[in-house]
Amino acid sequence: MKKHMKRLLITCVMVSGAAQAEDLLPDISRAKAKDALYGQALYQLHSGDYAAALGSNQALRKRNGRRYGKILDVHQSIAELGLGMNQQANQGFQRLLADERMALVPRPARAQAWFFLAKSFYSQGYWDNALTAMRKVDEQFLNSDLKDEYHFLIATLEMFRGKPSRADKHILALKEDSPWATYAFLNLAVSYTERDVHIDKVEAAFNKALELTKNTQQQKALSDRINLMAGQFFFDTGRGRTAIKHLRSVNLEGAYTPKALLTYGWALTEQWQYHEALQPWYMLKTAHSQLNQDVQETLIAIPHLLEKLNAKVLALGAFEYATEQYDAIHKQLGDSATRLNTGEFIEPLLASQVPDKWGSFVPLDLTLPNHPDRIYLKDVMSQGYFQGQLTKLRDLHVMRHKVIQSLQDLEAFEDTLATRKQEYSVIKADDAVASRERRYRDMDKRYKTMLNNINKAFNNPDGTGLASDQEKGQLSQFKSVEGRIKQLAGTRVMDSKREQSQYRDRLRRVEGVLKWHLSERYAERKREVSSQLAVLEAELRTAKQRLTSTRAAFEAAPDAFAKHPERIAKLRAKYQQQLTKIDKIYQRQRFAVGTIVKEDIKQRQARILDYQLQARLAAARLFDETSNKARSLAVKTASKNKNNAVAQGAN
Amino acid sequence: MELVYSPKRIGAFLLFSFSLLFASLAWTAGDAKLESNIEELKAEVVELNRELFELEEQLLYPATTSFAVFVSMDSVKNFELSSVKLELDQETVTSHLYANEQVDALRRGGIQKLYQGNLKPGMHHLKAHIQGKDSDGRPLQRTVVVDFGKARSSKYLEVKISQNPKQQLPEFAIVEWK
After folding, report:
1. SS3 sequence of A461-492
2. Which of A50, A176, A213, B178 is buried most, with the most CB atoms less than 10 Å from its CB?
3. Which residues of B are less than 8 Å from A557 in CB distance?
């Protein structure tokens, strides 16, 4: 029982301690505001994308790792832990902490590195190492969120190592509203059960843990778990009433219902409440699958109880029913073992996992709708070791998927390069760039000619250069009229000076109107032409820039497809090599997982056979008892009847 | 039945015990080796993927046309980021919904590469729609815009969310990395 409790406790701790690894990181902001790669690495790490974070970390080291100091080592180990690379992460942290230069790392980072290492050891079950590392954590440099977790973990470890007084000190240091306080009091209760502490103290610890569940996210599930643990403990120690009180509080539709119903039934049986005990067992039998081990126990427990109630015929029927059911369960387990060999058991589960998600913080998706092994799988998954091995197999499966995807990516890259090469050869064959250059040169020449003409036109600011033919005729007419006035001056036609001046003035006025008109138009036209010229010039400049870019791109284009094929080929070879390695390791891990399942199935089948044997023996005994009684009753009645008949005959 | 402890029996028992012990040790050693093999594989796959990623960047986003938009957020107290949508030259190019841990990653100094693409030289227009909630849980939406020129070199822009120290309000801007 104690072992069982401890296993429950560890599972509980592991679930509760599933905080993200990056939570343990010191808050060191990025070294340089615009260091994109470092910033990205931080983002990936803190948001749980450990594979990308590790990749960025490698790139940063390759680029200029030294400028970041030891923080890259801390990041690397955290990312490794996130990916389930515990051995490498531990080595990394130990190297880091052993390094004298670690003194240069800020004290919060150092404290958190020790904390993190301790947690890593803890999750792997190396409690002594975990405690040693945890004792080196300088508590004052941990942030407030981590402090509670620190007190919880060190208290648990001290308890496991048999130092309860030290553990108590840490439990008292926990904040009451912290979710860790709940787990700490639960662990304290379990520790009391193992230290023969007075039963009242044990109950008080369980009750305190129950009270504190309100601070946790999964209050219902945790309350059920605590009530079940308390119920089992009190039942084992012969305190049936207290056990019943706790077991009755377990939710009827939860993960702990079957175990609670079974123990509840046994606790009632111990209190001689046989009729009452039948109810939870019937509930358990009818509402849950027979692959559940608690249901299997119930199958034999019910007739046992019926026998105690002196319902022997009923008990006989129930034993016979149980015998048949055990046959069916044994067969179902055998079928699971067969499916394991034919790849119909583990493989569908792996195929249903999210393809990009892997690492120790990514839970396995156990939903296998309509699969015959789904109940068994959930049952076997409660074993931490199996869960760990299956997670590793899932990681290998995801890696395999990723490698295959990468090989497909490489193929796509090759296609891209081929397309680029083809496009380039078409452009080259068409001589497209040169023909565009020629067109540009023609356009430029035409522009320059036009510019000359325009300049000529704008040479004379009086605007005569922009006059129309009619206006030009008028201007020449002015000259001839002027000459004619001169000729006529002093003749009879125009003898007076006054008359001559009148003609000249009129001529000047007309000429003035025309020239004023021309000069006005000159300014307007010049403005118009200048703006159009500016637009044209800008367009020509852009065209020239584009042409230069195109020329540069055209010259550089072969690099876009000529440089990479060799690199792609190298990468492909590496990936293929990796795929072979993964396949090999996958098979070995698959075998390891299969071995665990086979072993588990064997044990379950052995237990079933044991139950079946007990049921058969009991059935045989009851059959004997019930059939003999019937015979003796029949004999008694017959002899009585005979005696009566003799007496009547004598009368 | 009487138990007889003959030397032969004791020897057989010891042999059996040792064989069990060795088998279990061999199993544990094999287990540890398999685990270290898996870890090595993981490290190699990560490194290979990094190489592939670098190749992809060089191949698909050459330096002459490469364009990227990053998102960063300082320790802004009264703003909870929900989503960012980017419009480049009047066309939606990407949008992202943030999970809690991603917002936390930004607060802790992380920079997210929100968009990467290729862009022709010339003038361009970028619009970022930022949605979130203020400290009272009320929805808050802001749009920031920038016109920028792209030459024949890579161009990086950053959608920056920071805290206005005087007003204690979040500030949004798009800044250019030079």
Report:
1. CCCHHHCCHHHHHHHHHHHHHHHHHHHHECCC
2. A50
3. none
Per DSSP, the three-state class of A537 is helix
Structure tokens at A621: 């005994």
How far, in whole angstroms, is CA A423 from its chain's centroid? 41
Place of tokens 């190298």: A570
Q: Under a CB-based contact definition with an 8 Å cutoff, are residues A282 and A302 in contact?
A: yes
- Beta-bridge partners for B163: B170
- A41 exposed, middle or buried (CB, 10 Å; 0-12, 13-18, 19+)? buried
Whether this model's pTM surpasses 0.80: no
The token pair at A331 is 């067969």
> Which tokens go with A490?
């002093």
Secondary structure (3-state) at A618:
helix
Residue B98 to residues A38, A166, A554, B137, Cα–Cα distance (Å): 20, 43, 41, 16
B4-46: per-residue pLDDT in tens?
344 444 444 444 444 444 444 445 556 778 888 888 999 898 8
Q: Give the helix, strand, coil percentages of chain A, each rounded to 5.
A: 80, 0, 20
Residues of A in contact with B46 (CB under 8 A): 51, 54-55, 58, 83
- Terminal CA-CA length for chain B: 94
Q: Where is A327: in which H helix or E strand?
A: helix A312-342
Please report which helix (H) or strand (E) contains residue B165, including its range: none
Residue A279 reports pLDDT greater than 90 = yes
Mean pLDDT of A203-232: 90
Assembly ipTM: 0.84
Provide DSSP, A26-94: -----SSTT-HHHHHHHHHHHTT-HHHHHHHHHHHHHHHGGGGTTHHHHHHHHHHHHTT-HHHHHHHHH
A83 closest CB neighbour out of B42, B54, B56:
B42
Instruction: Name the A residues in 448-477 with CB < 8 Å from any B CB.
Output: none
Residues 6+ apart with CB under 8 A from A13: A156, A183, A187
